[in-house]
Amino acid sequence: MTKAPHESGPFDTEIDRLETVTLTEKQKKAQRNRSIGLAIALILFVVLVYAGTIAKLGSNILQRTF
Description:
The protein is mainly α. The chain has a domain at about 25-55. Helices cover about 55% and strands about 0% of the residues. It has 2 helices and no strands. The longest helix is centred in the middle third of the chain and has 33 residues, at about 25-55. The N and C termini lie far apart (about 80 Å). The model has no long low-confidence stretch (mean pLDDT about 80).
């Protein structure tokens, strides 16, 4: 018994059936720009949280007793 090309057996992987997309140069550039924008936003958020923590603690951070 032969299988039709569209039928899958128990050992076929999902990767064999996935279609891949090839990005154009314009799409790659847009994706890179989005990634850079997200990285900058994340860094700014971390700096903001750090600065807020230091401002909230103030000089008390140096007066800790152990």
